[in-house]
Amino acid sequence: MTENEDEYTSRLVKLVLIGDGTSGKTSLAYRYVNDTFSKPYSQTLGIDCLLKRTILSSNVHVTAQIWHIGGQSIGGGMLDKYLYNADGVILVYDVTNLESFENLMDWKEQVLQLIRLRSDAKFPHFVLVGNKIDLEHLRVVRGQRQEAFAKKQGMSSYFVSAKTGEGVTMCFKKVIADILGIKLTVKDHDYQYTIVKAEIVKEKKKCTENSTVQSVARPKSPEKSSFCVVQ
């Protein structure tokens, strides 16, 4: 380690995403790691593990392990092993699905119970993420309700869209920075943007043959990433 490197250089951070099935945990993980989104839904069986290498505050090199657990695993016997030594636990719900929000407390209690059973367990940084904010017209859980719940439970709170990428990269960067106790710089907020085409829903009105619509550009991170799958 050189004199210009700080104590957090080359740190490893383990983040575990939990929540009901269809809340978008897998899509959220892949959006952050690979900047991709897949439409067809396929429920995660067991757990997936992705790796994302990033640099924060100019010289803080971090490798983030992103573990996302299948929604059906809340009572699974392996859950404690997946959560063991996690630096952060991210509770994900779908803002268009009230039940996924109401079940968050059950997920958190399950984590706390597992922590209490292990004397060597690390107490993680809890994070609340409301996903699918691109579906504002279908939203049933308002921002005020999420913020109130997060404040009561002592969690940081974020709103994101795994589909469009809105808020995803910054959410993960802030979570990692909070865990490491570092302050993000202006450079951490700078991204490269590319224009993406939005889908056009055909209505009864006749559209011109070559009509296209462009949406706000999504962030595209130049950071390296890799993945592994754990069954």
Report on this structure.
The protein is of the alpha/beta class and 231 residues long. It has a single domain (11-230), classed as Rossmann fold, CATH 3.40.50. The protein has 6 helices and 9 strands, in the order E-H-E-E-H-E-H-H-E-H-E-H-E-E-E. The strands form 2 sheets. The protein has a 7-stranded mixed beta sheet, with helices on both faces. Strands 7-8 form a two-stranded antiparallel sheet. Helix 5 links the parallel strand 5 (125-131) and strand 6 (156-159). The longest helix is centred in the middle third of the chain and has 14 residues, at 104-117. The protein is globular. The two termini are 36 Å apart.
**What's the CATH class, please?**
Alpha Beta
Strand order within the widest sheet? 6-5-4-1-3-2-9
Query: What is the average of the pLDDT values?
Result: 79
* Sheet with most strands: 7 strands, mixed
By secondary-structure content and strand pairing, the structural class works out as alpha/beta
Helix coverage percent = 25-40%
Domain unit count: 1
Beta-strand portion reads 25-35%
Provide the CATH superfamily.
P-loop containing nucleotide triphosphate hydrolases
CATH-derived topology? Rossmann fold
Q: Encode the helix/strand succession as letters.
A: EHEEHEHHEHEHEEE
Number of strands: 9
> What would you call the shape?
globular
| Distance between the first and last residues' Cα | 36 Å
